[in-house]
Amino acid sequence: MNTVTFQGNPLHLEGQLPVVGQKTPDFSVVANDLSPRSLKDYAGKVLVLLSVPSLDTPVCDTEVRRFNAEAAKLSDKVQILALSCDLPFAQARWCGAAGVAAVQSLSDYKDVSFGKNYGVLIQELRLLSRAVFVVATDGTLAYSQVLSEITNEPDYDAVLEAVKKLV
Q: Of residues 49, 55, 60, 142, which has the active-site annotation?
């Protein structure tokens, strides 16, 4: 998929989507304390990568809060990351106000390497499109869900089922 829609209007995605069963690409993002993070920082964990346009939007807010609540029911071998192009300061503020502690927010504002490497960078907006990737402990992509309409929520049950198969 090279296009998605925002309220029915087409937007173009940059980069290649990773393929289920293959190794996931690395990325370089920034944590809320401005420290660098990459895929290798989470080695040995089952990763749920939530790609969202902005935490300060209603659908992203709902999605990340839902995954934050679900995280308590998952194994400590699972790490959920919410990636957006929001500035780290805005992410930290939003997480604090929303009481989100189990999901770690990471910013792709600097290099948009996650967006490009995972094929979810919206060219027209320089924001990330809505998608969920589940990465196995060996670094292979186990599950992928890219929403064709970015104002829609993901299929939470399908994502959680994919995670449970890996732990």
A: 60
